[in-house]
Design goal:
Blueprint (H helix, E strand, L loop, with lengths): L4 H31 L7 H8 L3 H7 L3 H20 L4 H5 L7 H16 L1 H8 L7 H15 L10 H21 L6 H17 L9
Helix pairs in contact: 1-2, 4-8, 6-10, 8-9, 9-10
Protein name: TetR/AcrR family transcriptional regulator
InterPro entries: Homeodomain-like_sf, HTH-type_Tx_Regulator, HTH_TetR, TetR_C_Firmicutes
Keywords: DNA-binding
Length: 209
């Protein structure tokens, strides 16, 4: 199909307008979530806050539940992209907890949570059928699968997931709920001390030897 220059400009303008509208709706949702509970948020409040009409909102989302899923997925996608920076090789063999690559990974993880603290806090406080911490755990399990780490586990994967991924993300959850009582560096030190033995002693993975 052939598009002339004017068609391309029109399409680009339309796409930009759609993105701006979606951004406005999502930002309005976050603002309302910061102010109160999810249950009290309505489509009417979101549309008013975003300065769009109801029909515009429904062109993008079926209801507020779908919008919640969208903002959760945005954050989870960023989380996954950041988490994937750690090479699988670091997790498959004995490692030094002070190894620069692993140290950098921990730092990026903690800083990501800290930078998005308000969002994590708001989502972790959301009640009902939407459990954000479970979605975080599922995201990490997907990463393990993609890195083929589950194939090398020395114990049943359901226990490994519970022990390691569950511990890490529940530590993060506790840190968020405490309103970041510790600094990122202090929390990083706590996290390393609790999680590093799993890897340094090669407790989770079969040895190649």
């Amino acid at each position: 199909m052939y598009y002339c220059q004017e068609d391309v400009i029109i399409i680009a303008t339309k796409d930009l307008r759609i993105k701006k509208t979606e951004y406005a709706i999502k930002q309005a949702f976050w603002d309302l979530l910061y102010q109160g509970s999810y249950q009290k948020i309505t489509v009417n409040k979101i549309a008013t806050q975003a300065q769009v009409n109801h029909s515009t909102f429904y062109k993008h989302y079926v209801n507020k539940d779908e919008l919640l899923m969208a903002v959760e997925n945005d954050l989870l996608s960023e989380f996954k992209e950041m988490t994937q920076q750690v090479p699988a090789s670091l997790l498959e063999s004995k490692i030094n907890p002070e190894q620069p690559q692993l140290e950098n990974y921990y730092q990026q993880l903690v800083l990501f949570v800290y930078r998005n603290g308000k969002k994590f806090s708001a989502l972790l406080d959301t009640t009902g059928d939407h459990s954000f911490i479970n979605k975080l755990i599922s995201t990490d399990q997907e990463i393990w699968q993609e890195k083929h780490l589950l194939e090398r586990l020395a114990i049943p994967k359901r226990y490994a997931s519970t022990a390691l991924i569950g511990m890490a993300l529940n530590l993060i959850s506790e840190w968020v709920k405490s309103d970041f009582q510790e600094t990122p560096q202090e929390f990083l030190d706590i996290m390393k001390k609790l999680l590093a033995p799993f890897f340094s002693e090669n407790l989770l993975f079969h040895s190649d030897e």
